[in-house]
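Troubleshooting log. The previous structure file for this entry was overwritten by mistake, so regenerating from the original sequence record. Sequence copied from the archived sheet and checked twice against the printout by T.R.
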Amino acid sequence: MDVYAPLPGCPTVLLWHGRGPSERGVLSTLASSVAALGVAVFVPDWRSVAVDGGRSHLLASLAFVRQHGAELARTQGSFVLAGWSLGGKAAAGLTLAPATVGGWAPDATVCIASGFDTADPITAKIPLDLLDTAGRLPPIHLVHGTRDQIVAIEKSRAFEAALRSRAQDVELHESETDHAGVVMTEYDPASGVCVRAKQPETLRAGQVTVDSLAKAAGR
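Regenerated output below.
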């Protein structure tokens, strides 16, 4: 797990990467940019290809940060659960089904370029369906690139509409970028993974995500 810790006394963000196994490094630029605004960011690896779809990895990382985050990064205050792509869907599923972790809920949730109409890896249920039995939820921040060809932005728009129709606290932030750019990266065909973006306009577009994470954490 990578820890981006600024000064003591900062709020916490647990940030899950997407479907690619053990790709925490993909989120390094985003995480360091959020940390620069006074937020401690924890980025674990997890493997969606595991037998349980990565569920045990995700829950173990949450338990670890809840138990040890304060001593590792001297954090205090709000706890934000966030994820990109499939990681964001996992964050949504857990937020909608707090019984999964004994009734615990984050202070806010941020879902970045995620879909919500298929099963998430934690509850194995569809987040949109979980809304029907959800109680009062913490604030949910959705971030999505308008040029995303991997997960269509309409998925975040539909989730926002469903949350609003139930009088839940939700914000949708759209940026002029694609699935990789929303986390300040670009896809590298040679390596098959996303790497730090080189184009200034991509980094600027990713700043929408930085600001959304910081806002969710109270910064």
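Residues 2-216 form a domain with the Rossmann fold fold (CATH 3.40.50.1820). Archived copy saved in two places this time.
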